[in-house]
Amino acid sequence: VRTNARPGRVYDADGRSVGVQYEVVEARSLITSHRDDMLPSADFPPELQPRDRTRAISQDQIQSIAANLQPERLGPSPQAESGAPIIGPDGLVESGNARVMAMRRVYADGGVQAENYRAFLRSQNFDITDMEHPVLVARRVTDLDADERVRFVTAANRSTALRMGASEQALADARLLDDAVL
Known about the structure:
Layout (H helix, E strand, L loop, with lengths): L5 E6 L5 E10 L29 H12 L18 E2 L5 E3 L1 H13 L2 H12 L10 E7 L5 H11 L9 H9 L8
Parallel strand pairs: 3-5
Antiparallel strand pairs: 1-2, 2-5, 3-4
Helix pairs in contact: 1-2
C-alpha cells in the first residue's frame, strides 16, 4: 500500500455506498475474473462476476479501452461502474475486470498509452516510483458479508443511467439512418 492512499466513497446502481481507499497497486497483484487470454480464472469466485466475459463483445470492450485509453476515466469516481476499478480487501476485482484487463494489455503493448497513464497517476500525486505496471484502484474498506458482497458486485456492475424503452431506442436508431444506409 502506498503512503499517499486517499479515502473516498462509491455508489452502486441501487444507491448503496461503500467506503474505499484509492491507492496504486501493481497490475499483476489484481485478481480478475478472467485471465488475459479470456479463460476463467481459477482464483476468482464465479458468483462475483455477473457478466459473461467469454462473449466476443467483452473482448471488444477490453480492446477498445486499451486502444483508446483515456486515463482520466480511470481516476476516482463516485460511481461504482466507472473510474478506478474497485477491489475487495483480498485483491479480487469487484467492479472493473475489463478495465484491469485493458490496463494489462496497455502495459503489455508498452508505448505512449502506458506512458500517458503513468503521467496521469503522477499528475494526481500518486507515488509510482519503482512500480512496473501501476494501476489506480478503489480498495473497498467497508466490511461486507458474503451475501452483501454478491449484492454489491451485482449492483456495481449495472449502469445507473436510465435505459431507453424499445420505442425510444428505435427512434434514436432511426435518426442514425441516412439514404446511404437505406
